[in-house]
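quick q for whoever's on today - can somebody do inverse folding on this one?? i tried earlier but teh output was garbage lol. tokens:
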């Protein structure tokens, strides 16, 4: 997949895997910083000794929302940029499922499939991704989601056939 694509080519990519990101390591420092930012200090995330003794995980696990928040970096890492884009906006999720806990020290990566591209108004296209976050050496993904973003562009760049 090229690093950059034109707006006129987006619709033809529906159903295509746009990219797989590099691996991101989710270490205890990242988990602790996320706990501080969100004020979620539940022991399964922040206390390695207690989590090893009292959970089936063998240690701490990342917050599901931490894993979800990595989608932006993963997207930026591998999904082609639309050349005519002036701004991208996170619109939200239709569905998010946390399938497998991400253990501290694990590596994760995102896989992005373009599910829908719908032009709205003169200068916007709504992009829906089917995304999964894989955990290295795990059978099931950390999460699956239907993620919607809005790409804004100058109306003069709108393809004529949409």
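ok took a stab at it. sequence:
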């Amino acid at each position: 997949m090229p690093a950059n694509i034109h707006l006129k080519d987006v619709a033809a990519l529906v159903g295509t895997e746009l990219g797989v990101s590099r691996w991101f390591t989710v270490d205890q420092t990242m988990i602790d910083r996320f706990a501080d930012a969100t004020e979620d200090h539940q022991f399964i995330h922040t206390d390695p000794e207690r989590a090893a003794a009292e959970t089936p995980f063998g240690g701490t696990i990342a917050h599901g929302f931490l894993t979800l928040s990595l989608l932006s970096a993963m997207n930026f890492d591998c999904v082609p940029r639309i050349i005519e884009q002036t701004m991208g906006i996170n619109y939200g999720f239709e569905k998010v499922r946390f399938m497998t806990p991400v253990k501290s020290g694990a590596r994760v990566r995102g896989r992005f499939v373009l599910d829908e591209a719908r032009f709205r108004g003169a200068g916007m296209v709504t992009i829906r991704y089917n995304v999964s976050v894989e955990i290295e050496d795990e059978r099931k993904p950390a999460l699956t989601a239907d993620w919607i973003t809005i790409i804004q562009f100058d109306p003069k760049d709108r393809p004529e056939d949409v």
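fwiw The mean pLDDT is 96. also The domain at 4-157 is CATH 3.10.129.10 (Thiol Ester Dehydrase; Chain A). so keep that in mind when u check it
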